[in-house]
Amino acid sequence: MVSRDAVLSALSKVEDPELKKPFAELDMIQEVTVEGDSVHIDLLLTVPGCPLKDKITSDLTEAAQSVEGVEKVDVKFSVMTDEQRERLKAKLGHTAQMPKPSRSPGDYARRVICIASGKGGVGKSTVTANLGCALARRGNRVGLLDADVYGFSIPHMVGVSGRPMAEGDQLIPMQRGENMQVMSMGFFIDENEPIIWRGPLLHKAINQFLTDVKWENLDYLLIDLPPGTGDVTITIAHAVPSAELIVVTTPQVTATSVAGRVAKMTEKTDLSVIGVIENMAYYEVNGSKDYIFGKEGGKHLAERLEVALLGEIPLDTAIREGSDTGRPAALSDHASLSKLFDALAADVEKVGAR
Ligand SMILES: Nc1ncnc2c1ncn2[C@@H]1O[C@H](COP(=O)(O)OP(=O)(O)OP(=O)(O)O)[C@@H](O)[C@H]1O
Ligand SMILES: [Mg+2]
After folding, report:
1. Closest-lying ligand to the alpha carbon of 341?
2. Contact, 30 vs 88, CB < 8 A?
3. Which pLDDT belongs to residue 58?
4. Pairing mode of beta strands 288-290, 283-285
5. 105-350: same fold as 4-92?
6. Residue nearest to atom 18 of ligand 1 (CA)
7. The pairing of beta strand 170-171 with beta strand 166-167
8. What is the 211 CA–ligand 2 centroid distance (Å)?
9. Residue 108 to residues 77, 111, 210, 216: CA-CA distances in angstroms?
10. Nearest CA-CA partner of 129 in 239, 137, 163, 252
11. Nearest CA owner, ligand 1 atom 6
12. 326 Cβ inside 6 Å of ligand 1
């Protein structure tokens, strides 16, 4: 029989890696329960999205397992209330440095999905807008983050304008309908102004979008990336390691090979590719399909990456018009297109669902 006191005594020495004091002394261990050979630990974190969760888990696990008979250890985290944080601050004294909140979109959304492409103009933003609308129509709470800080197009495509309000140090995203929230650099910059980002500023702007937007309890956060494998994609990959990625391509061989490069880049990060969407797959006239940009490029890319081909979207005037008028085709009464985007959303819900 494992003694809870023995476990508590073993845990009493484990220190917070940032505050350099034992968790127990800081009243951060909320609960310890012992069931047979299993130990459950509830730990209070000072800030959400603590980057040291893995280290803390392994330190606590190791300490608990040093007690004879302990086999399984599971560590759960919750976040301190403002009051608890104030108490901790008082305990640490005035000179102590409390960790700064480092939030991540993963704290606000069940799934974070980046939409990427190798080259420009293949329809990433169009896909993001339509997929987002279709997911929202299916009852999901959806956030759209336009991370294309040079060529932002999401606000226009989903018909949202205005300037986001601030609440404390956070920005409140713009609301579209009941289920959708939107954030874009486009809300802050005059469309006719040239934008010149210098490296560090770009990094800062993207990070701010990732940490300082107050999304509300999302099912999906879709991030519309700029084309290619540039800085923005790398920054996001590091900030949201749990994110998934969908590659958009046209059927053309050159387009699919650059799209493959994007997917390859994810091997250097923790992003997981969940599927390919082929856009501009064909043009349909009187029921017959014309494969203007070639055929099955998306299918071959999906096979190469060993992921699902999530959809083949036709080249259709209604899709372009929907984006131009702020009412994506996914929401229109164009039956075959709204059905197609609904099926795409259903596939995304299924693939990689956690
Ligand atoms: N399936 C489609 N049918 C008709 N028009 C489309 C389709 N997909 C995209 N378009 C149009 O093609 C243009 C480029 O699309 P979009 O802006 O979505 O591409 P992108 O990959 O986001 O481009 P960028 O690399 O510049 O961000 C837009 O005018 C859009 O309306
Ligand atoms: Mg775009």
Report:
1. 1
2. no
3. 93
4. antiparallel
5. no
6. 123
7. antiparallel
8. 22
9. 15, 9, 10, 6
10. 137
11. 320
12. no
Question: What is the reported pLDDT for 93?
Answer: 74
- Supply the pLDDT for residue 30: 92
Pocket test for ligand 1, best of 133, 283, 284, 320 (most atoms within 8 A of CB): 320
Q: What is the pLDDT of residue 217?
A: 87
Distance of CA 337 to the CA centre of its chain: 26
CA distances from 122 to 226, 259, 270 (A): 11, 10, 25
120 lines ligand 1 (CB under 6 A): yes
pLDDT, tens digit (0-9, with 9 covering 90-100), for 124-179: 999 999 999 999 999 999 999 998 877 789 999 999 999 989 888 788 999 999 99
Name the residue with tokens 């000072």: 46
How far CA 61 is from CA of 66, 96, 205, 265, in Å, comes to: 9, 27, 37, 33
Domains of the chain by residue range? 4-92, 105-350
- What distance in angstroms lies between residue 124's CA and the mean position of ligand 2's atoms? 5
Q: What is the pLDDT of residue 354?
A: 47
Q: How far is the CA of 334 from the centre of ligand 2 (A)?
A: 23
Task: Give backbone dihedrals phi and psi of 322, rounded to 5 degrees, phi first.
Answer: -60, -45
Contacts of 103 by beta carbon, 8 Å cutoff, 6+ apart: 47, 48, 49, 210, 211, 212
Give the chain's length: 354
Structure tokens at 157: 């495509």
Ranges under pLDDT 50 in the chain: 354
Are 312 and 301 in contact, with CB atoms under 8 Å apart?
Answer: no
- CATH code for 105-350? 3.40.50.300
The rounded Å distance from CA 154 to ligand 2 centre is: 8
CATH of 4-92, one of 3.40.630.30, 3.40.190.10, 3.30.70.3270, 3.30.300.130: 3.30.300.130
User: Is ligand 1 within 6 A of the CB of residue 315?
Assistant: yes
Name the pTM for this structure.
Answer: 0.74
**Which residues neighbour ligand 2 (ion) by CB within 5 Å?**
124-125
